[in-house]
Amino acid sequence: MSSQGFGVNPGKTYTTTDLPLPIGVGSVGKTPDGTWMFVQADGAIDQYAAVKISDDGQAAMLTTTNAGSNNLQVGIAQVAAADNEYLYVFIGGVGGGGVGSGIKVKAAASYAADANLQTTATAGVVDDASTTVIKNVVGLTTLTGAGTVEVKTTGYLSVN
């Protein structure tokens, strides 16, 4: 994974017709709202879905099942992507996200503000009551029904 400054565009997806790609898969860049990784979708990804990122830069919607028990890089897609498209996903960083940043994640019903985000059986959706904690991130608002919440991070997103 390389880290460098480049024009992060988390609102755009790229296809093979967009070659050459703006940056290599797995490359990391920063904006004032946090750190982003350029990945390739391994299956369709919903807007605002939590994703797992493999060592080769492939991203798939995160579930409790695919979170596993090893250190796993996690991101949050801000746009929907089809299988094999390329996109930037938010991976956190100290002080990433926050009120008014617009960086959101899909959350299940009855999410309580400032609670740890955790994986669920539903692909890409997080909750505050499950089995696998996503480290270094909390949602900022309470939900009574399923929806999206803005997030704030204290480091890079991962699960153990």
Tally of structural domains: 1
Helix content: under 10%
Number of strands: 12
What letter string, H or E per element, gives the SSE order?
EEEEEHEEEEEEE
Structural class: mainly beta
- Quick one: overall form? globular
Radius of gyration: 14 Å
What is the name of the CATH architecture?
A: Beta Barrel
Mean pLDDT: 92
CATH class: Mainly Beta
- Name the beta content range: 35-45%
How would you sum up the major sheet?
A: 12 strands, mixed
Please tally the helical runs, counting DSSP H or I stretches of 4 or more residues.
1
CATH topology: Virus Head Decoration Protein, Chain: A
N- to C-terminal distance: 20 Å
Low-confidence spans: 1-5
Task: Summarize the SSE layout with pairings.
Blueprint lengths: L12 E2 L13 E4 L2 E8 L8 E4 L4 E4 L2 H4 L4 E6 L8 E12 L6 E4 L8 E4 L6 E2 L5 E7 L7 E13 L1
